[in-house]
Amino acid sequence: MLTRLIRHAVVAVLIAAGSAPTSAAVAAALLREFAYVVNVGSNTVSVINTETDTVIAAIPVGDTPTAAAVTPDGHHGYVTNAGSDTVSVINSIRATIPVGDFPNDVAITPDGHHAYVTNAGSDTVSVIDIATNTVTGTIPVGDSPGDVAITPDGTRAYVLNLGSSTLTVIDTATETVTDTIPIDFSFFPQQVAITPDGGQAYVGSNTADTMLVIDLATNTITDDIPIGNSLDGIAISPDGSRAYVVSVVQEGESTPGVVSVIDIATKTVIGTIPAGDSSQDVAITPDGGHIYVADFGSDTVTVIDTATNTVTRTIPVGDRPISVAIGHL
């Protein structure tokens, strides 16, 4: 739990502020699929070729990176650097974009035109025009905004505000706040993910052992799913049938991670899968076949086959991996 708070209290990609892979082998690999792992301890992003499950590059970014996202076409990647108040961009265009105070999370609209960055220190969301890599809008939200998720149709962004325990709804066409959803302060919301049909949002907590379900048609909380452990990351399968929830089991000085598998139709836990130490985040491949878990405490990524719910590989990455995103070219 404490390690996840590094991201939210510093206060889900082709990412870098510095050099990019240049070899012919890496250039060819860019035509495939990659997992991009944000290493907050080493200020790098590890790039994993998901076909071979090997690290092909370690890319330097800004100070205290916290999250990454990739455009739908895979041409641009964005990583928030909480310690330097910037967003790093890499690939066909490399840039460093100044944003608000302590940028915490980033999400990209489905059309690939804009990136939404939460600024935990300034209680705002910066809107980046991806064509120009400039901030074109700044939206006031709640206190200490953390995770952000965008609906599949791109019309709304949902921002979790850690300090005010609310979920801000932003109309992306007008870049204005249209609703604020209250969440009990004791829940301490940390993560948000939206189903592929845009009908529901799943909200996790670092303090409560449950996950909230929000009906996005009415912006109201409709369900409460017991998980058993505090939550550190949520990914939903492309077909919308499963949610994969990363949490940490406290066992003395050891903090092993576990992935709970949620049946979305019944809203029940149907399985658990062990992961690495102090697991922090999870991402799923576009075909839904594998999930990648960032293991903060063991400096690894755990790869899980979703057909069998078994671990297929453990990959060493950089220091203190805190976030993971999947990019597809």
TrEMBL record:
<dbReference type="InterPro" id="IPR051200">
    <property type="entry name" value="Host-pathogen_enzymatic-act"/>
</dbReference>
<keyword id="KW-0732">Signal</keyword>
<feature type="signal peptide">
    <location>
        <begin position="1"/>
        <end position="24"/>
    </location>
</feature>
<protein>
    <submittedName>
        <fullName>Beta-propeller fold lactonase family protein</fullName>
    </submittedName>
</protein>
<feature type="domain" description="YNCE-like beta-propeller">
    <location>
        <begin position="115"/>
        <end position="182"/>
    </location>
</feature>
<dbReference type="Pfam" id="PF21783">
    <property type="entry name" value="YNCE"/>
</dbReference>
<dbReference type="InterPro" id="IPR011964">
    <property type="entry name" value="YVTN_b-propeller_repeat"/>
</dbReference>
<dbReference type="InterPro" id="IPR048433">
    <property type="entry name" value="YNCE-like_beta-prop"/>
</dbReference>
